[in-house]
Amino acid sequence: MAARTSRGSGSGVARYRVPAKPRPPASLQRATAEEHRFEPESTFRRLAFVDLDLSGQAADGVELAQCRFKGADLSGVQLDGATITDCLFESTNLANLRAEKSSMIRSRLSTLRMTGVHWINGALRDVTVSECRLDLSSFRFTNFTDVTFDDCNLTRADFQNADLTGVRFTHCDLTGAQFSQATMNGTRFANCLLSGIGGVTSMAGAAIAHQDLAALSYTLAGALGIHIEDAASE
To answer: What is the dihedral of CA 24, 2, 37, 55, to 10 degrees?
Structure first.
């Protein structure tokens, strides 16, 4: 297991930073399914993966740099020990993708199907995730640095033991999400659905918009063994 950091573990609240933008090249070579399969220790640079079926492939140590994926199918792909830098993912299927001890840096993911993605014991830095379906996804033991989730379906997502210091969730459905033993100093929630989340007592140091607090208060009360009664029943 990779060593976890304790960013923002002091008395101050971690400051939110906007994720750095990817640095795509001026032009990209068109990738092909025949010539650009994922092989162990393979490197792909400045390629456009457009409307390609790459589903079910598996390889360790793959490196992707300054690539763009649009309309591609990466469902069921397994990329352990992968490094993804300055990449754009748009309208692509990543359902059930599995990656362990992998890193993603300065990348943007938008309008993706990511149901059941497992990104375990890895790292995400300067990543923007918007309008993605991430239900039943798992990010256990993963470190997040300057990451934003916007307008995403994260129902029953698993962030157990993740370091979410400074992460921002906006307009996300986090119903039933799991945060047990997560580090959440400075994690921000705005206009999110937070009903039924697990590990609510791990949210010390998080910042929650006042309009989101009502649903969370019932979950927190339940976790602390507090029974909420209707005043009329007295």
So the answer is: -100
Rounded Cα distance between 148 and 146, Å, is 7
CA 100, chain centre distance (Å) = 13
CA–CA dist 71, 77 (Å, integer): 15
Q: What is the 3-state secondary structure (H, E, C) of 62-117?
A: CEEECCEEECCECCCCECCCCEEECCEEECCECCCCEEECCEEEEEEEECCECCCC
Q: Are 55 and 76 in contact (CB under 8 A)?
A: yes
Domain of residue 151, residue span: 70-227
Residues 6+ apart with CB under 8 A from 154: 134, 135, 137, 169, 172, 173, 174, 177
* Encoded tokens for 52: 């390609």
Number of domains in the chain: 1
pTM: 0.87
**196's tokens:** 């039924």
In a domain? residue 161: yes
In a domain, 28, yes or no: no
Contacts of residue 233, defined as CB under 8 A and 6 or more positions apart, other chains included, come to none
Q: Return the pLDDT at 27.
A: 92
Average pLDDT, stretch 211-229?
Answer: 65
Mean pLDDT of 67-81: 97
Evaluate whether residue 38 is within a structural domain: no
Q: Tell me, what CATH number does 214's domain have?
A: 2.160.20.80
* CA-wise closest residue to 174 among 201, 154, 199, 196: 154
